[in-house]
Input
Amino acid sequence: MEFLRNLFEFPLTAVFVTIVLGLGLGQLQFRKIALGSSGVLFVALAMAQFGLLKPDYTAELGQFGVVLFVYAIGLQAGPRFVQTLRRKGAVPLVVVLGTVGGAGLVAGFGGYILGLPRETIAGVFAGALTSTPALAAATEAAGVEQAQLVSIAYGLSYPLGVVGVVLFAQLVPKWLARRPARQDEQADTTPGEEVRQRCFLVQNPGCIGKTLSELRLHDWVSAVVSRIARGSEIIPSSRNPKLERGDVVLAVGTNHELDRLGLLIGPPVPAEIEMADVPNVIVRDVFITERRFAGRSLRALHIRSKFGVVITRVRRDGVEFVPRGEFVLEVGDLVRIVGYEHDVRAFSTEAGIHERRLHETAIPPFAFGLVLGLLLGYLPFPVPGGGTVQLGIAGGPLLMGLLLGHFGRIGKFRVHVPLAGRYLMRELGLVLFLVSAGAGVGTDLWPVLQAQGLGLLVLTLLTLVTGLGLGAGLAYLVCKQTAPSTMGLTCGAMTSTPGLGAASAQFESEVPALSYAAVYPLALVAMTVGAQLMLALM
Output
């Protein structure tokens, strides 16, 4: 213990030791349930109780973390925020507003009846809905002196929220009627499984002499043939050649879908079709930025016939899909394409950012946007009845991130942060903020729990049940969604990735993940704004 105390005398060492221990705790799983990044908060709370972590050297780091975190969220949600509203209609908006608004009202009225401070109520709201952005916004809005109440309430409510959503996703699908899937749900493979590659030997007589288009494999399986080996020649599937006996085709999909493809084409073979030594056929990742490609299905875009390439994978909000013809592209999708080099280059130029630019961040417009966000946060806005309000360091950068994510530029300068950069910025900002939030609690944890522990537990359960019930009820009963879509929308409205994993395991379908991805950006913004409104109105 003395060694730890000496080690924690160095501020940065204390911060990063807490982060390492917290992330380690977050990786531990019980029945596939884990704390994730929130493990940092619990370790920070424990360190603060033993006097190993002090708020005097974490406060500014916490503010820096909040700014990075919410700015990254805005950049992540921006490309699809408006697009989702336009393409998906009112369904995601209804589910999110119902979930967040209903849970917020119950938390507010319930907390008032139980006599809990408004900061505690905001912490319960964020924890029960498993929303770290809401925690960041509530902590910043509460001010330095009362922020510890938000963190304590969140620390108690969050585990209950995670477990509650997972149990909900496991149990409720068994009670829902299996409605027929709608046309817009026939799009992809099951994203709950890992996407793999496998080679097959063409032997089925029904395939020989027919092109891939004539076989219409997408009508039968959710797997994509990316290229074909014929002797020493590698042929991209975008050229749509006629299959010959003895050809070896490379397909991409989940194990289940690849097994089904093998029944149609022929047996799997332990061959590998690599293209490093084939100069005319290449694979490239392209970040979709052009809006004329968004909101339209691959079939409507005629990717194969117009550009001569095949899209084999799409990555969206951390979920990887194998697209079928009805898959609808969105701005911000990262797609992997296969084809001849000149065709790939032409598609990349038309569709978005590619090659080296895909992994680069233009620092000047990025930093300038962050400055504008901070200025926007400090700008006073008049409210009815007199007085002014400020968006703060959570609301200002979030709004600016949304705008930059949507428009993609400041004047003539393009603002692009690659997926890895956004992920690093979001996670680094998050853990720095969580360390600061935990350290700010100090020795107030046990007194607050002793005085308010039962009230916190009751309010958490009420808020959690209300959010889940309204989300699922609005999606299933009011919006007439199918059971898979209902579960995806509900988990997305609760911003619960563990819940999505549990829901996806209940259905042999990609629909839960697609619905989750559609509603998730709206939920991030709604919870961040909702937490600030709660503190402003109570």
